[in-house]
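Exercise: predict the structure of this protein bound to zinc ion.
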Amino acid sequence: MKMKFTASAVAASILVLTACATSPTGRNQVLLYSESQLAQMGDQAFTGMKEELKISNKPVQNSYVECVANAITANVPVSVFDGQWEVVVFDDEQVNAFALPGGKIGVYTGLLNVAENQHQLAAVIGHEVGHVIAEHGNERMSQSTLINVGTQAVGQILSANEVPQSGPIMAAIGLGVQVGVQLPFSRTHESEADVIGLQLMAKSGFDPRQSVNLWQNMEAASGGDRPMELLSTHPAPQTRIDNLQANMQSALADYQLTAHRPKCQD
Ligand SMILES: [Zn+2]
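Solution:
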């Protein structure tokens, strides 16, 4: 019994040593899964969502969201995803969006009432794609594997990429882990995705200052009655805005350097 434990501990440490990576903001990460495994899970989750949810059939709405998403994904390194990103507008009043490994983006029509212009929509899509660029899904799954909570891999990837349906799956992980480990981890991911998203939107020709307006609108739309999930895993709006402001100068420099100015019409 003792031997077995030692052997698996050694195996685990070898796994960790060989799987160390650095996130785009310079943070150490442990990534145990391959990119193709993640892409496959992203594919699978997205296919499921397209079957379950109503898809918007409004051409103007679809081309508006595609216009913004395409401008953003044009600036995502091909090392993250080498192919044509798939963008789907879900006809649903939730104020939300997500991106998945394997080049998938979903936007809910409810978000279009809160993101007032193309810049604000770009801030959300940039943030979601930022989670994918920084491999947050892989990191969360890897962490769960290492702390041995026996969680479901698909639930982890859905949650890390903010697919709303993942709530029940995430709940199955257990409150102790949620509060003790997953919660601070999520806040780190949120801040990192905010910074990556800010740079990405600026490079893509969207005004990064509008990201602050977006989060103010989000806060106003939630009317002080924020859903539990948002309350527990997302930074306080002011913390988020402070973080964006701290990175605004370099984002504005990128914005001024790019000649491209998307004109996406809603
Ligand atoms: Zn996020």
